[in-house]
Structure to design on (442 residues):
């Protein structure tokens, strides 16, 4: 089986990430992936997992946790989604003492093409057999790929597996694990047509990863409606809960920040991901690391400090050029767009801001456009090569009174921006990780 054949096989499975609208609760059944994993001897059962859910910041929190553990000498499996350029990015292993990479198009430790081919060869017979008899129909792409990650991490004998939920939490394919610790990053309105129209409904889906009394849960600061759902869920199942701004504190300094945690103080911390929201994500991640002490796993302050500073996460306020200044960020909902806007204002100096914006159709298109409206001087609207992409002409009606350019694809938008920008300007690419990935790859 060749690598192109492997890709073709993976793309043969239904991929809900490419479908704008589908019946969420009817389409996703946790029993589906549970039954398949049981058929391949439950590879996830041998993994020591850390599980992260939330609306924004869950990917950043995952990588902060993974890099701190790697810095402490552990071999760490990292499973995140979606991807920027290549879905192999979703499955990574960070090994201790490996040479630290500078940001580039290659995600450190991602599964190789040969390894992915071998995994598919190994699991294809079981997948085909299961799909023929499953009462829930064929496995989805995300269910297959999550299963591949579990098998890969088990075969590679990772010390920990850090898992980011895909959509929601309760019905997510990653929610088959019994983690040592879990975290809920800030919850806001997103995927409302699937997860619910209120913060309570959305938080209920996210808090579905909280399942037993052995679990230690770290929560980012939440709106009260969402926070109450998390507290109630922890009480019902007996999980131990620690909340940022209540049990864990982030002390922001002029040069860096400190964390007052569950067990101690961690001063003089620094991260290279800009934005106050990333300081909160890092604080949640430190809480997750501290939660491991309840399982007799102690990570020292040097590993925490060095791991945070060395964390790389492409596509998140990612500076890819200085002349002109180009910043890429996967902000794709109102809350993350607001955080991005504050980060740009606080961290960058420029004369004009040229915005490249593309948004998936299942997002709050109006809310996102309204949030970013005032920041942009000139606006280039585009769309990713994805069935979920909103047509740029639809976006244009939310930018009345602005200088607006319509483009058919991300590369056309990139060429337009480079034509408009002078060296003192800033080009900001956001609205969708699909758009960011295509821009980065072009």
């Amino acid at each position: 089986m060749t690598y192109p054949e492997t890709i073709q096989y993976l793309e043969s499975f239904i991929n809900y990430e490419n479908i704008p609208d589908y019946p969420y609760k009817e389409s996703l059944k946790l029993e589906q992936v549970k039954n398949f994993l049981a058929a391949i001897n439950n590879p996830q059962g041998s993994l020591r997992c850390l599980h992260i859910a939330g609306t924004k910041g869950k990917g950043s929190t995952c990588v902060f946790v993974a890099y701190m553990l790697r810095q402490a000498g552990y071999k760490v499996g990292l499973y995140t989604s979606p991807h920027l350029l290549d879905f192999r990015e979703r499955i990574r292993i960070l090994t201790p003492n490996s040479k630290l990479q500078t940001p580039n198009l290659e995600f450190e430790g991602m599964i190789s093409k040969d390894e992915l081919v071998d995994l598919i060869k190994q699991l294809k017979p079981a997948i085909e057999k299961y799909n023929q008899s499953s009462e829930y129909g064929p496995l989805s792409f995300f269910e297959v790929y999550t299963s591949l990650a579990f098998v890969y991490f088990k075969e590679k004998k990772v010390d920990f597996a850090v898992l980011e939920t895909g959509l929601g939490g309760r019905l997510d394919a990653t929610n088959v694990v019994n983690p040592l610790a879990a975290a809920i990053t800030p919850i806001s309105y997103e995927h409302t047509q699937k997860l619910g129209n209120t913060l309570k409904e959305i938080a209920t889906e996210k808090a579905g990863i909280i399942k037993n009394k052995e679990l230690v849960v770290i929560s980012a600061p939440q709106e009260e409606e969402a926070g109450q759902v998390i507290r109630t869920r922890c009480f019902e199942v007996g999980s131990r809960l620690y909340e940022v701004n209540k049990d864990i504190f982030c002390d922001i300094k002029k040069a860096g920040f400190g964390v007052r945690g569950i067990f101690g103080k961690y001063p003089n911390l620094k991260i290279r991901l800009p934005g106050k929201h990333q300081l909160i994500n890092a604080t949640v991640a430190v809480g997750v690391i501290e939660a491991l002490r309840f399982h007799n796993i102690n990570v020292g302050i040097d590993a925490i400090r060095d791991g945070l500073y060395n964390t790389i996460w492409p596509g998140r306020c990612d500076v890819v050029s200085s002349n002109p200044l180009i910043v890429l960020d996967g902000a794709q909902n109102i809350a993350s767009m607001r955080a991005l806007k504050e980060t740009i204002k606080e961290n960058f100096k420029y004369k004009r801001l040229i915005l490249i914006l593309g948004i998936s159709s299942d997002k709050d298109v109006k809310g996102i456009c309204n949030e970013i409206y005032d920041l942009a001087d000139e606006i280039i609207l585009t769309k990713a090569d994805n069935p979920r992409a909103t047509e740029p002409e639809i976006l244009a009606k939310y930018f009345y009174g602005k200088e607006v350019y319509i483009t058919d694809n991300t590369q056309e938008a990139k060429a337009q921006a480079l034509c408009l920008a002078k060296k003192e300007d800033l080009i900001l690419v956001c609205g969708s990780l699909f758009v960011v990935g295509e821009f980065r790859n072009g």
User: Anything to note?
Assistant: Residues 318-441 form a domain with the Protein-Tyrosine Phosphatase; Chain A fold (CATH 3.90.190.20).
